[in-house]
Amino acid sequence: MSITDVLSADDIAAALQECQDPDTFEPQKFFQTSGLAKMSASQVKDVFRFLDNDQSGYLDEEEL
């Protein structure tokens, strides 16, 4: 499975571009731009599980 199976590569790139500078990450804006806000809770959990490589229940900087 690839993250682009559930989110558009263009939307991901746009969301990441918005928070490139230090202290500019806004979770709600990121969720809107990336397309996560349009997903069901179970879809968001699937994305989280995909990103959580070590299955710790947390997303480390390296996993993002």
UniProtKB/TrEMBL annotation:
Keyword Zinc: no
An annotated Gene Ontology molecular function: calcium ion binding
Binding site for Ca(2+): D52, D54, S56, Y58, E63
InterPro entries named among the record's database cross-references: EF-hand-dom_pair, EF_Hand_1_Ca_BS, EF_hand_dom, Parvalbumin
Domain EF-hand: 39-64
Keywords assigned by UniProt, alphabetized: Calcium, Metal-binding, Repeat
GO cellular component: cytoplasm
Record's keyword annotation contains Mitochondrion: no
Protein role: In muscle, parvalbumin is thought to be involved in relaxation after contraction. It binds two calcium ions.
Family affiliation: Belongs to the parvalbumin family.
Protein name per Swiss-Prot or TrEMBL: Parvalbumin
Species in which this protein is naturally found: Jaculus jaculus (Lesser Egyptian jerboa)
